[in-house]
Amino acid sequence: MKKRIALIPSYEPDEALLKVVDELLENGFAVVVVNDGSNSSFDSYFNQLPKAVHYLSYEVNQGKGFALKHGFSYIKEHFDTNSIVVTLDSDGQHKVSDAIRICDVCEEEGGIVLGSRYFGKGTPRKSRFGNFMARMSFLISTRHKIYDTQTGLRAFDYSLLERLIGIKGNRYEYEMNVLLDAVRNKIPLKEERIETIYIDNNAKTHYNAFKDTFRIFKEVIKFSISSLIGFLVDFLAFTLLTLIKCDWAYWLIACNIIARVISASVNFTINYKLVFRSEDKVWKAVLKYAVLAIFILGCNTLLLWLLVDKAGMNKYLAKVLVEITMFITSWLIQRLFVFRKKKNT
């Protein structure tokens, strides 16, 4: 059996941290605790940690993602490669028996194993809202359904540590980024149902439902804004061109193509530099984007022609309906192909 290492990022903990650490040690885990810049008034809890614990700390709070990566780096340097790493929250919401179970699954099946909570009627509203938004963001981004994208109970093989250290994000968005990276690189994701524990209606959570949900959801939001700008440029150009009197039978199609070329240039620039922050050279990204643009243009023009010329729909209403359909298609292809992140090596 592989060595089991428990990594616990902790910010301003209480007695629950000490209880979970003791139980982990009793069950043969090596334990690494990262003090994520807690106020000095919480030193008493960290000072009570058993000597067997590997304790790491820094003065300024950096966020959960930073703490996890700090712990992963320490584990990579100080522990044997024949190990399974499991992350737990420090507030007592994860049972050690569940941690043992997902470690067993990880050792047998590999990949990333998530301890998945059930969000029923008894779940605090803030937690239910945050997890619903994260779940929808993940589904839209990847077409993969993960019920609990924000669970802190996760098991990984030691071989994944280098990749995990290189993933972007220092706060709650990091855990979503780990799952996105796994999907991109075809790392298996498996969920195991665990017991859901909320202490004092989850009052001590440091998750801010609006601020941290925005961090998690921001890539979809940025893409939506970029697409909206592209749509407005496209619609404006299309409208101005159609106001020009022209008896050519294919003038509507020509207007759509010209407007699409203008808006595609704007959309590419925004997505390349701001939304996906592609690591590809510009010419490679342009080539892939051009292939996508031609495909989208063909579908866009065909649909517009069918709705206006064959179905008799108002050309401006048809334009809006076609653009909504193409938005969803374009998002998925750009996210998974055009601006796909490179693998960490």
Outline the low-pLDDT stretches: 200-204
What is the count of structural domains? 2
Rg (C-alpha, Å): 25 Å
Percentage beta strand: 5-15%
CATH level-1 class of the largest domain: Alpha Beta
The CATH homologous superfamily of the largest domain is termed Spore Coat Polysaccharide Biosynthesis Protein SpsA, Chain A
| H/E series | EHEHEHEHEHEHHEHHHH
Number of strands: 7
Shape: elongated
The average pLDDT is 82
Distance between the termini: 27 Å
Structural class: alpha/beta
Proper CATH architecture of the largest domain: Alpha-Beta Complex
* Biggest β-sheet description: 7 strands, mixed
Put simply, the count of helices is 11
- The spatial strand order of the largest sheet comes to 3-2-1-4-6-5-7
CATH-derived topology of the largest domain: Spore Coat Polysaccharide Biosynthesis Protein SpsA, Chain A
User: Helix content range of the residues, please?
Assistant: 55-70%
Quaternary assembly: single chain
